[in-house]
Each structure stands twice: as C-alpha cells, then as structure tokens.
C-alpha cells in the first residue's frame, strides 16, 4: 500500500510540474516583440517596424525591415487584386537575390563609394536577406501575401527554360543578373518589369563558393559603361521617381514597364495591384 501511495504522489507531482512547464512555455511564446510597432501609414496592409529604423529617400521616410500583415478589414480588396488559382499557377515572380547580395555590407556599393578595392566586387550569396528598399522588400512581401509564386535569380540562371512554364513573369529590382538570366527574361513573351533599373549589370556566379562577381555595368570596368548588356529597353532613368505620383505601364516588345520605382507605393495602391494581376 505504501508503494502505491508513493507512485500516486510521484504521478501527481509530475503532472503539476509538466503543467507548470507548459504554461511557462506558452507564456514565453506569447510574449510580444516590443521593439516592433505598427506604423500609421496609408496602406492596404498592416505594417510593423522598429520605431527609429528608417532612412530618408527624396525627403521621405523609408522604413527598413518592415513586416507586412494582412488587414482583415481589407479582405474584399484582397479578393479583387489577387490572382485566381489558375493565374497563380501560370505566373511567377523572380526574387532578386543577386541584387540583395550586391547591396550587402562589404559588397559592390562599398567599392562604388571608394570604401574598398575590387575584392568587394565578389560577394557571398546568403540564404536570407532583410526586406530592403534596394531588393524590393515591400513588393516581395505584398505579392507573397496575395499568393503569387516565387523563384529566384539562381533558379533562372541554373535552368533558364524554367520561365517557359509561365504565361507571365514578374521582374522586381533584379538589377544584377547573369547573361543566361538576362536572355531568359528578355526572350520571354510576357514580362512585367515592375521596377526600373532591372537587368542593368552582368554578374557571374560560382556555385562552388556560392558567390557572385561583377563583370560589366554600373560604370565597371569602364566608367562609360552604364547598362552592362547594352539593353535598348533600359529604363533606369525612372529609378529616382519613388513617389510614383503618375504611375503608368509602357509597352515594349516582350511586355510592360512601370515608369517609377514602386517600393513605397505597391502596398497602398489597389489600382497598381490590379494592373499587375490583369496584364
């Protein structure tokens, strides 16, 4: 009888301890991230960011590393701008991972600004990058929330024919691309060039070391070289228009080009999102 009582006591204590641990774990999990605040910005989405984590672009605050969330109040709008299930299967967005690498600390822009030598023109490709202005961080989040499918520069470079599966290809600020990727995109019949300055400079990729290297463009290796592919449709002149007050898509041979840099507009413009869906 004494043995049974000991067993029962042990079981009771175990249950109490387990429940205490569970409650503690649950409480810890539910702790809010107090460093993130919801921003009071006109948008179709809820936006969180760290309060002082922003830079100034043309006199306007551009928040860094923002997090977008769906706003239940705008469910009807989302249903009007997101692609149908059939369209989702035939549309692809190319994530600009090469451009994200180029803009990373110790990368191409440190060389351009005279902070380092040519060694900075070879940079590592990381698995993840923050949602930055230069690599279309806002558009990436918004289009994912609206159920667009994504591949990356690397996928296109390794298998250029992958784009043949899709009726519509959406290019973001894919500024740095390989020659194979450039040809795959420019040979596709229906491309939305959502950001000016795409396909601007040629890079090479070493998949053994997981690095990219600048080959040509952006004033390298000769200051007279602007577009590294000498692309006749280069529209980099529109890159500085970040306000997008007069957004418009212009027709080119293999698709459509937007005439402004829509990073601060894409999350707030229903008409832009509808146009992206309908082209």
Number of domains: 1
Classify the helix fraction into a percent range. 25-40%
Q: Total number of helical segments? A: 9
Structural class: alpha/beta
The helix/strand order is: HEEEEEHHEHHEHEHEEHEEEEEH
Q: Round the Cα radius of gyration to an integer and report it.
A: 24 Å
Low-confidence stretches: 1-31
User: Beta fraction of the residues?
Assistant: 15-25%
Q: Estimate the mean pLDDT confidence.
A: 89
Strand tally = 15
- What does the largest sheet look like? 6 strands, mixed
Blueprint of the fold:
Blueprint (H helix, E strand, L loop, with lengths): L1 H28 L6 E3 L7 E5 L3 E4 L2 E4 L3 E3 L5 H7 L3 H5 L1 E5 L1 H6 L5 H5 L9 E3 L12 H9 L4 E3 H6 L9 E4 L4 E2 L1 H8 L4 E3 L7 E6 L4 E6 L32 E4 L2 E4 L11 H9 L1
Parallel strand pairs: 6-8, 6-9, 9-11, 10-12, 11-15
Antiparallel strand pairs: 1-2, 2-5, 3-4, 7-13, 12-13, 14-15
């Amino acid at each position: 009888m004494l043995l049974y009582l000991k067993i029962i006591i042990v079981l009771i204590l175990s249950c109490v301890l387990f429940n205490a641990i569970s409650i503690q774990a649950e409480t810890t999990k539910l702790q809010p991230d107090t460093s993130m605040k919801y921003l009071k910005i006109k948008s179709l989405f809820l936006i969180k960011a760290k309060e002082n984590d922003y830079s100034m672009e043309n006199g306007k605050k551009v928040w860094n590393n923002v997090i977008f969330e769906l706003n239940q109040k705008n469910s009807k709008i989302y249903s009007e701008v997101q692609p149908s299930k059939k369209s989702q299967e035939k549309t692809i967005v190319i994530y600009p991972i090469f451009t994200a690498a180029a803009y990373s600390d110790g990368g191409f822009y440190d060389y351009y600004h005279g902070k380092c030598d040519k060694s900075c023109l070879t940079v590592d490709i990381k698995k993840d990058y923050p949602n930055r202005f230069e690599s279309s961080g806002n558009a990436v989040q918004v289009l994912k929330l609206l159920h667009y499918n994504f591949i990356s520069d690397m996928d296109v470079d390794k298998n250029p024919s992958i784009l043949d599966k899709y009726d519509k290809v959406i290019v973001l600020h894919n500024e740095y691309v390989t020659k194979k990727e450039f040809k795959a995109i420019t040979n596709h019949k229906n491309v939305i060039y959502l950001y000016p300055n795409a396909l601007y400079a040629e890079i090479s990729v070493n998949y053994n070391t997981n690095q990219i290297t600048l080959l040509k463009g952006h004033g390298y290796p000769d200051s007279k070289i602007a577009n590294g592919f000498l692309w006749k449709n280069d529209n980099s002149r529109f890159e500085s228009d970040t306000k997008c007050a007069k957004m418009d898509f212009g027709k080119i041979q293999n698709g459509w080009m937007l005439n402004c840099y829509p990073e601060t507009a894409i999350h707030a413009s229903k008409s832009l999102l509808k146009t992206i869906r309908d082209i």
